[in-house]
């Protein structure tokens, strides 16, 4: 059986589990945009709050750190690009390549903000059922008459459900390639191709099977969604998040 990843919904009785999904969707947007204006102290506070919320929701610190192995290459690429492209006081210089102090600082800030966004999205997916996400997205898009709310909501729900499957397939493919000694090849492009091509093929095959299964069962966008209801705890949490965001922006 596949290992339960951090991107799977986990039932629980935490505060985040009990909040209305519409409020959690608003929190996701507010915190993600606020992190773009945050710096060291504010980012530290956001990181502490989000890690504490994830651990309270049933995810261990080891699992949180393990999740970031999927994005460490992207974060490293962003950091290096920023460190090499930002003008300022040179720290390291080799021929035409120079790393500046300002580049290192802004590279760390950008990567840290991306970590905040990932932690926020992880807390949302971890504590929210895919059916509730579909209902919340449809609720958010209903006021716009020219947007197919039901179709987009269905796509979002399928994407959330399919993400853990892709991660499991990536792990299985990597284990199979490792057993064949692919990691001993020094060419990173060759190793990436041997991992990426089979993974894409298996992902598309799985998607085709899912589409055929949905058609065979006469799947329709017009389904009965879970009833969304809010309570006093949702409004208290909204006030807390709004106040936190205002303090960060004004700091």
Structural commentary:
- By secondary structure, the chain is mainly α.
- The protein folds into two domains: 1-129 and 230-251, no CATH class; 130-225, no CATH class.
- It has helices spanning 15-18, 21-35, 40-56, 61-67, 72-85, 101-126, 130-141, 149-179, 188-216, 232-250, and strands at 90-94, 97-100.
- The chain has a two-stranded antiparallel ribbon.
Set down the secondary structure blueprint:
Elements: H1 15-18, H2 21-35, H3 40-56, H4 61-67, H5 72-85, E1 90-94, E2 97-100, H6 101-126, H7 130-141, H8 149-179, H9 188-216, H10 232-250
Antiparallel strand pairs: 1-2
Helix pairs in contact: 2-6, 2-10, 3-6, 5-6, 7-8, 8-9
Low-confidence stretches: none
The total of beta strands comes to 2
Query: Strand arrangement, largest sheet?
Result: 1-2
Order of helices and strands: HHHHHEEHHHHH
Number of helices: 10
